[in-house]
Design a protein that fits this description.
The structure holds 2 protein chains of 2 kinds. Chain A is an alpha+beta fold. In chain A, about 35% of the residues lie in helices and about 15% in strands. Chain A has 2 domains: about 1-70, Ubiquitin-like (UB roll) (Roll); about 75-145, [2Fe-2S]-binding domain (DNA polymerase, domain 1, Orthogonal Bundle). A 5-stranded mixed β-sheet of chain A has the order 2-1-5-3-4, covered by helices on one side. Chain B has 3 domains: about 15-130 and about 200-290, Aldehyde Oxidoreductase, domain 3 (Alpha-Beta Complex); about 415-455 and about 610-760, 2-Layer Sandwich (Aldehyde Oxidoreductase, domain 4), CATH 3.30.365; about 465-605, Aldehyde Oxidoreductase, domain 4, CATH 3.30.365.10. The longest helix of chain B has 28 residues, at about 530-560.
């Protein structure tokens, strides 16, 4: 079977298997930024946007993408780069394996929350695990990026 | 210094953070076979029959390998310099399976689904044995985990196979029992540390193929390319010259990837089929079929006089290495090695104990490598001793800790080259507000309290690990830095380039870093044992200095003056009189043009006779809810002596990350097995690593020392950072509610139950 959807602003027709998850289908299609870290919807590595909302693509069947707008970090490369520069300047990317999923959540948060507090930021990003940085550096980067005063 | 000591962004930072295809699985070529492993459902069994006939008939299945198909030569998968102290107790596939998850068969197919389909059709008959699951009863158990007679140790580590003992150790200086008798105060406690999981975000993975010369090219998410090459050569019985190992970008290691976990499986499939093969472990396999921190029981006895001097330190331990002996003797040894030097007013110290085999997942290398376990036990007991002596625990430490220029019983007369640990304690006290907050303040049902601990680690393995580096002047005037160390996200490629750039007085952009490819890189054992900044760093310094000297020599020749008459500012060589000059670019051009020239290259090799310890003083403030036992982290202060800080931002990140991993060990990461030996905490639902709501605030400060044997005065940082949270948090919880939790993790449930027990008494 095949599905039709908009991937990073371009229409795509993709043959899929009925039991295939979106993360696997997108990766097979060449979206190599997508990684699976847990298979239990805990780690946030596979975060993409479905119709603008951050979603765990390892836990969504490909068929659910039919007719939807799917955005990966490849589709928001410019915005991602702006935040990544801040992240790198702080040194908070470390191994970088969780970064694409993390950045997709950060960019979604920027679109969604108006003047978030530090607590709002931490809450919004809780589903993105990181084993390297201890989160503090990521928080410094996000606050710099959003123009929130750093304590 | 202009470049060393500044927060330069990681040279790979933009690519890795924006999802560019630079990790192992991103580089796999089309038409690569996908491997899956059939695993033992039993903790201890012998395969009596295995039938793959039906599975092999599935279209798309390329091959299925069992114990009958592998070389009968034992090896160790521990990533250590040869001769490894770990026993050669493994085969690629063995007829005996020793834990739930041990490998039974390798299935290679065109895709994952086909491989899984085939796996279901393999029929295996087992003779099931009684397993040894409790490490406290392993010694002398009726079940012998390794009965085979071809198990081999490179040297005596105290192995007694028939008793399930991998290693027995004892180091004693002075007469410990006699000293304890003479002490005014003796305290004793027993501790349990769990088999923490690394939980690097990128699970274990590798792929390989045969190149144009028929050589096996292995691309692996590994910390140890050269050890991988050597081990593959032995286990597969092929010459090492036929193997190339490449490390791309890695999504975290934490020591887990200091063990050869997956490379043998892909390698044997490619050698058998001639086809490229890849393997990716999922999270469940990563939890239950790889390696972890060694679970331990440690009993500490401390003796002191009422004047507050600690006179005797005795640590007795039992370590659980699981089904195989990777890093078994060395992790255990480090428990004593990184604790006994700390309190040097002692007259006797001892570390002794046993490492045993059990039928559980093997232990391995994990950030801290025994020092973590030892620090928890020793420092928790030091805090208890302070209470017995009614001395402030920070004061007890300031009075007893080793200082720069001093020695200790285990140092064999050698002096400690650098330490600011006392200053770390003073600074930490101020930052946390110790004097105002110690020990507690009560606000209704919420009690806030502070706790602390100190720790040391090493920098490289003294007298064993040796790294080399090369810096080459390229034809167009830039440099290539060749190293074999393995940046796993730490930023080591960046800080090593900073060191070279500093010496060559050039910009970071002029240095091309090429790392961790056994065909190209100079030898390096790999990034482990906190060695890269210190050992590889010193090799880079030597290589860059040699190249700089050669640039001056060759420049002088071209300028027709003596080398002493030339100065080099990184761009231009000038005679001291200023009459003649030659640009570096021109020199580079001339060195590769015409007859009689030589492309110039600096080489450096470094191995150290000492392993200079970095130090940390860790302070924590917690809030405990007396109604529920809930422990909340409020504030963590880590004050660090890592010698010179090479890159402040990357150093801070190492510290913060290590502290949070230590918080996980201390409070959240519980390890549970079923009665039959099945690991139940095998996913992030069951095994909770800290998320960003679980950690409070972490603050990091540095008290720089200058290590005379290190590059620019630097010591290590990567491991020491994980050690203080467990004892500091245990201390704070005790100070809050009087509950002493000696068994990690310190869960709210344990705190609550213990509080209830005390109030019932």
């Amino acid at each position: 079977m095949q599905i039709e959807f908009i991937l990073n602003n371009k229409p795509v027709t993709l043959p899929i298997k009925i039991d295939e998850f979106l993360a696997d289908a997108l990766r097979k299609y060449g979206m190599l930024s997508i990684r699976k870290g847990c298979n239990t919807s805990c780690c946030g590595l596979c975060t993409v946007w479905i119709d603008g909302k951050p979603t765990l693509s390892c836990n969504v069947l490909s068929i659910r993408a039919n007719g939807k707008q799917i955005t990966t970090i490849e589709g928001v490369a410019k915005e991602a780069e702006v935040f990544a520069q801040v992240l790198v300047a702080v040194g908070a990317e470390q191994c970088g394996f969780c970064s694409p999923g993390f950045i997709m959540t950060v960019l979604a948060m920027k679109n969604e929350l108006v003047n978030p507090t530090e607590a709002d930021i931490i809450h919004y990003l809780t589903g993105n695990l990181c084993r390297c940085t201890g989160y503090m550096g990521q928080l410094r980067a996000v606050k710099t990026y959003l123009g929130v005063n750093i304590i | 210094m202009k470049i060393v000591g500044t927060s330069i962004g990681k040279i790979d930072g933009m690519a890795i953070s924006t999802g560019k295809p630079v990790y192992t699985d991103d580089l796999v070529m089309p038409n690569t076979l996908v491997l899956k492993i059939l695993r033992s459902p039993h903790a201890f069994a012998k395969i009596t029959a295995i039938d793959c006939a039906l599975a092999e008939k599935i279209p798309g299945v390329e091959c299925i390998l069992t114990y009958k198909d592998v070389p009968n030569v034992r090896f160790t998968v521990a990533g250590q310099s040869y001769p490894e102290p770990s026993p050669y107790d493994r085969l690629i596939l063995d007829q005996i399976v020793r834990y739930v998850g041990d490998e039974v068969a390798i299935i290679a197919a065109v895709d994952e689904k086909t491989a899984l389909q085939a796996m279901k059709l393999i029929k295996v008959a087992y003779e099931v044995f009684e397993p040894v699951l409790d490490f406290e009863t392993a010694q002398g158990h009726a079940t012998i985990v390794h009965p085979e007679d071809d198990l081999h140790c490179n040297f005596d580590i105290g192995m007694r196979q028939e008793e399930n003992i991998v290693s027995r150790q004892k180091v004693e200086f002075g007469d410990i029992e006699e000293e304890l008798k003479n002490c005014d105060v003796v305290v004793e406690e027993t501790y349990y540390i769990q088999a923490q999981a690394h939980c690097m975000m990128e699970t274990y993975r590798a792929f390989n193929y045969l190149d144009h010369m028929g050589r096996l090219v292995v691309v692996s998410s590994t910390q140890i390319p050269f050890h991988v090459r050597r081990k593959l050569a032995r286990a597969l019985e092929i010459p090492a010259s036929k193997i190339r190992v490449i490390k791309p970008r890695i999504g975290g290691g934490f020591g887990g990837k200091q063990t050869v976990v997956v490379e043998l499986f892909t390698a044997i499939v490619t050698l058998k089929t001639g086809k490229p093969a890849k393997i990716i472990y999922d999270r469940e396999e990563t939890f239950s079929c790889t390696n972890s921190r060694h679970a331990m029981r440690l009993t500490v006895r401390l003796g002191a006089n009422i004047d507050g001097y600690i006179r005797a330190v005795d640590i007795q331990g039992l370590s659980d290495t699981g089904a195989y002996g990777e890093h078994a003797s060395t992790v255990f040894m480090v428990v004593g090695q990184k604790t006994l030097p700390l309190y040097n007013k002692t007259k006797a110290v001892r570390f002794m104990g046993t490492v045993v085999y059990t039928n559980k997942m093997p232990g391995g290398a994990f950030r801290g490598y025994g020092a973590t376990q030892g620090t928890f036990a020793l420092e928790a007991t030091i805090n208890k001793l302070a209470e017995e002596l009614t001395i402030d625990p920070t004061e007890l430490r300031l009075q007893n800790l080793i200082r720069q220029g001093e020695t200790c019983l285990t140092y064999d007369g050698k002096l400690l080259g650098s330490s600011t640990l006392h200053r770390c304690i003073e600074t930490g006290k101020k930052l946390i507000g110790w004097d105002a907050k110690y020990p507690r303040s009560v606000n209704g049902t919420k009690v806030r309290a502070v706790g602390m601990a100190v720790t040391m680690q090493g920098s490289g393995i003294a007298g064993i690990d040796t790294a080399s580096a090369e810096v080459r002047l390229n034809d167009d005037g830039n440099y290539t830095l060749l190293i074999g160390s393995t940046d796993m996200g730490t930023g080591s490629d960046t800080i090593l380039a900073q060191m070279a750039a500093e010496i060559l007085e050039t910009a970071m952009d002029n240095i091309i870093v090429n790392a961790a490819d056994t065909d190209v890189s100079p030898y390096d054992p790999g990034s482990y044992a906190s060695s890269t900044t210190y050992v590889t760093g010193m090799a880079v310094v030597k290589a860059a200095e040699e190249l700089r000297q050669k640039i001056v020599e060759h420049g002088a020749k071209l300028l027709a003056v003596l080398p002493d008459d030339v100065e080099f500012d990184g761009q231009v060589l000038r005679t001291l009189t200023g009459e003649k000059e030659l640009s570096l670019a021109k020199l580079a051009e001339l060195m590769v043009l015409g007859a009689g020239n030589l492309q110039i290259c600096g080489q450096g090799t470094y191995g150290s006779l000492v392993s200079p310890p970095p130090f940390i003083a860790g302070f924590v403030e917690v809030e405990v809810d007396t109604e529920t036992g809930k422990v909340e982290l409020i504030d963590y202060v880590a004050v660090v002596d890592c010698g010179t800080v090479v890159n402040p931002n990357l150093a801070i990140m190492q510290v913060e990350g290590g502290i949070v991993q230590g918080m996980g060990l201390a409070m959240y990461e519980d390890v549970r097995y079923s009665e039959k030996g099945h690991l139940q905490t095998n996913n992030f639902m069951q095994y909770k690593i800290p998320c960003r709501k679980d950690i409070g605030v972490i603050r990091v400060a540095f008290e720089e020392s200058f290590e005379p044997t290190g590059p620019f005065g630097a010591k290590s940082l990567g491991e020491v950072v994980v050690n203080t949270p467990a004892p500091a948090i245990a201390h704070a919880v005790y100070n809050a509610v009087g509950v002493r939790i000696n068994s990690l993790p310190i869960t709210s449930e344990k705190v609550f139950m213990q509080m209830r027990k005390i109030s019932n008494e």
